[in-house]
TrEMBL record:
This is omega-amidase. Residues 9-254 form the CN hydrolase domain. GO terms for molecular function: omega-amidase activity. Its EC number is 3.5.1.3. One of its GO terms (biological process) is asparagine metabolic process. It catalyses: 2-oxosuccinamate + H2O = oxaloacetate + NH4(+); 2-oxoglutaramate + H2O = 2-oxoglutarate + NH4(+). PROSITE patterns: CN_HYDROLASE. GO terms for cellular component: mitochondrion. It is an enzyme of class 3 (hydrolase).
Length: 284
C-alpha cells in the first residue's frame, strides 16, 4: 500500500480538438502541456486518440511504434522539458503488424514508465443509436497497468474499460489512489453513462478519477461527448468541462481519500469469504 500523506497534485486535463493532421494535433498537445506547467500543474492528462480521428478506417494509417514514433518522442520531450508527468491519452500503436489503442505515461525525466493497451474494445450495436466495432481495426491489450507518481499509485484504463468495475476494483486492491481514463464517449452514450460511470468508479473504490475526452467536433464521423472531468473519492465532480476545446486545472487533495477510507472502511469490510474479484493472471 502507498501512503499518500503529503502528496497533493495539480492535474491538467487537456480536452483537445482532434483534427486529421496528426503532426498538428501533437504540436497542440505539446503547447497545452507547457501551458499546464505555467499554471502550476505537475500532471497532464491527454484524451483517447488525440492524434487521430476516432475512425476504424484511419487507425492503422496513423499508428506508430512505441517508443520510437513521432508522438512518443514529442511527449517524452514535453514531459522532460516541463518536468511533469504526462499521461499520453492514447494513440494507435503498431506492433507485430497489429494495432492497439495504447496509453503511454512519461515521467519528469522523459522516461516511459507505463503503457496500457485498451483491454475492452468498443464493440456495441444499438440500433438507431450507436454501432461501432473497434475490434475490426484494433487488438485488445491483456494486462492491467499502474504507475507510481511519487507516493501515489495510479491505475490506467481507456474509455470502454471504465464500464468494467472488476478492473477498477483490482486497481483499488493494488492500492491505487487515482484512476485515469482517457476516453471518447459519443454523443449518444455520453449523456446517459459517462458521468455516472466515472462517479461510480470513484465512489466504489474511494479513489480520485480523471477522465479526459477530446473536444466535440460535430463534423467528424464520430462525435465525442467531451465533458472531461475529475471526480473525488466521495463521488463528487470536482471539475467538469463542457463540450468545447478547453483545459481543466484541478488540485487533488489526497488527505480526503485517507479520511474517507477511515470513515467508511469498505476496503477492509469486503466479505471475500462470500465473493471476490481476482487478478486471474497473477493468481495461481
Ligand atoms: N469509445 C469507447 O471506447 C467507449 C464508449 O464510447 C462507450 O460508450 O463505452
Amino acid at each position: 500500500m502507498t501512503s499518500p500523506t503529503s502528496t497533493d497534485i495539480r492535474a491538467a486535463v487537456l480536452q483537445l480538438s482532434v483534427t486529421a493532421d496528426k503532426s498538428a494535433n501533437i504540436a497542440i498537445a505539446v503547447k497545452r502541456i507547457q501551458l499546464a506547467k505555467s499554471n502550476g500543474c505537475t500532471l497532464a492528462v491527454l484524451p483517447e486518440c488525440f492524434t487521430t480521428p476516432y475512425d476504424n478506417a484511419l487507425f492503422r494509417k496513423y499508428a506508430e511504434i512505441i517508443p520510437d514514433g513521432e508522438t512518443c518522442k514529442a511527449l517524452s520531450q514535453a514531459a522532460k522539458s516541463n518536468k511533469m508527468y504526462v499521461v499520453g491519452g492514447s494513440i494507435p500503436e503498431l506492433c507485430d503488424n497489429k494495432v492497439y489503442n495504447t496509453c503511454t505515461v512519461w515521467d519528469p525525466n522523459g522516461n516511459l514508465i507505463a503503457k496500457h493497451r485498451k483491454v475492452h474494445l468498443f464493440d456495441v450495436n444499438i440500433p438507431g443509436s450507436t454501432c461501432f466495432k473497434e475490434s475490426n481495426a484494433m487488438s485488445p491489450g491483456n494486462t492491467l497497468n499502474t504507475f507510481q507518481m511519487g507516493t501515489l499509485k495510479v491505475g490506467l484504463g481507456i474509455c470502454h474499460d471504465m464500464r468494467f468495475s472488476e478492473m477498477a476494483a483490482l486497481y483499488q486492491k493494488q492500492g491505487c489512489d487515482l484512476l485515469i481514463y482517457p476516453g471518447a464517449f459519443c454523443t449518444e452514450l455520453g449523456p446517459p453513462h459517462w458521468s455516472l460511470l466515472i462517479r461510480f468508479r470513484a465512489l466504489e473504490n474511494q479513489t480520485f478519477v480523471i477522465a479526459a475526452s477530446p473536444a466535440r467536433d460535430t463534423k467528424s464521423s464520430y462525435v465525442a461527448w467531451g465533458h472531461s472531468m475529475v471526480v473525488d473519492p466521495w463521488g463528487k465532480i470536482v471539475e467538469e468541462a463542457n463540450e468545447k476545446d478547453m483545459d481543466l486545472y484541478v488540485d487533488l487533495d489526497f488527505t480526503l481519500r485517507e479520511n474517507i477510507k477511515r470513515q467508511i472502511p469498505t476496503g477492509t469490510q469486503r466479505r471475500t469469504d462470500i465473493y471476490d474479484t481476482i487478478d486471474v493472471k497473477n493468481t495461481k
